Amino acid sequence: MQNENNHQATGPVNSTVTSLNGTARSAGFVGLGLMGAPMAANLLKAGWSVSAWNRSAAAVDDFVRLGGTGVPNVAALRDEPVIIFMLPDLSFIEEAAAGLLAEWRLAPPQPGTLVVVMSSVSPVGVQAFGIAVDEASGGNATVLDAPVSGGTEGAQRGTLAIMAGGDAEHFERLRPVFEAMGTTVRRLGGLGSGSLAKACNQLIVGTTTAALAEAAELAQRSGMDVESLFDVLSGGLAASRVLEFVGPRLAARDYAPTGPAKFMHKDLSFVVESARAAGSAVPMATAGVELYGELKRQGLGDLDLAAVRQTIAALSDLQSTAASAASEAADVIDSVRETTA
């Protein structure tokens, strides 16, 4: 869980700050991890003044060296017109935001304050968080959800796909923020729609990666070169961005983390939760929850998503062992029958 350590670092405020719909191009940013740090850095590059908090001081120090400002706790961002959260899950966000909401209950923020949840969170949960923020701020702050896709490479290059949910007018106010971090920016509907879109994205990415992992393990155990297989697949209907980006890591069994695989289990659980509420059948997501749950049980959750191949390899070994044991048992039974016949 995130605890607001009282560390503080300060840096120069960007001198290119201008106005945005009458509001200073100033933002608060909470969470400078693998995704958050480059996203916040791209805001600086786009001329925004950004004040940031992170659990570990080292990340804040790095951000200050880029021209950002560090704050001692999230509550210190209370007067920012835009506050962005990029933490692992909604529970982390709720804990980090507790002091901020307490401040707002004592003295509400300026009307039109926008709180942006860019993490992958539950579509149902983010709506409840929106209600909590509205109540704590006296109606002066509004939550939008805007999760991203594109991984650490997209975050570094500023080419993320950003899926937003919230009021249309608020979305347009935030468009310059989003366009500093991504190249594909869409509003999908009201609060929670962005998170549902991200859940659908993860359904496709998670199950496609698992299918590629199965294909890789099947090919390898059948004496085929996996890299050659993926090369020919990329020229046909099976070609995809997932194959392009994850395929080489699957083929090389390179599981160095670009993002923890354990988060896919969480994301697919959101798909199942949302499908239950909508009355929609999601057999692929259901199978994915079980598979990535097994990945976590095998202790692979902190590795890259490609580690699902290792999970499938372990399941294959288990299946082979079971089949061998069954065959040996059958041979023993047949031998006994022949002896007693």
Summarize this structure briefly.
The protein is an alpha/beta fold.
Explained architecture:
With about 350 residues, this protein is an alpha/beta fold. The protein folds into two domains: about 20-190, 3-Layer(aba) Sandwich (Rossmann fold), CATH 3.40.50.720; about 195-320, N-(1-d-carboxylethyl)-l-norvaline Dehydrogenase, domain 2 (Orthogonal Bundle), CATH 1.10.1040.10. The chain has twelve helices and eleven strands. Strand 7, helix 4 (about 125-135) and strand 8 form a beta-alpha-beta unit. Helix 7 packs across helix 9 (about 240-250), helix 7 (about 195-220) crosses helix 11 (about 285-295) and helix 7 packs across helix 12 (about 310-340). The chain is elongated. The N and C termini lie far apart (about 65 Å). Mean pLDDT is about 90; it is low at about 1-20.
Q: What is the fold's blueprint, element by element?
A:
Layout: E1 19-20, E2 23-24, E3 26-30, H1 36-45, E4 49-53, H2 57-65, E5 69-70, E6 82-85, H3 90-106, E7 113-117, H4 123-136, E8 141-145, E9 148-149, H5 151-157, E10 160-165, H6 168-179, E11 182-189, H7 193-221, H8 226-233, H9 241-252, H10 262-278, H11 283-297, H12 308-340
Parallel strand pairs: 3-4, 3-6, 4-5, 6-7, 7-8, 10-11
Antiparallel strand pairs: 1-2, 9-10
In the CATH hierarchy, the architecture of the largest domain is 3-Layer(aba) Sandwich
| N-to-C CA distance | 67 Å
Which fold name is given in CATH as the topology of the largest domain?
Rossmann fold
Q: Supply the number of structural domains.
A: 2
Spatial arrangement of strands, main beta sheet: 5-4-3-6-7-8
CATH class of the largest domain: Alpha Beta
Which percent band covers the strand fraction? Answer: 5-15%
Helix content: 40-55%
CATH superfamily of the largest domain: NAD(P)-binding Rossmann-like Domain
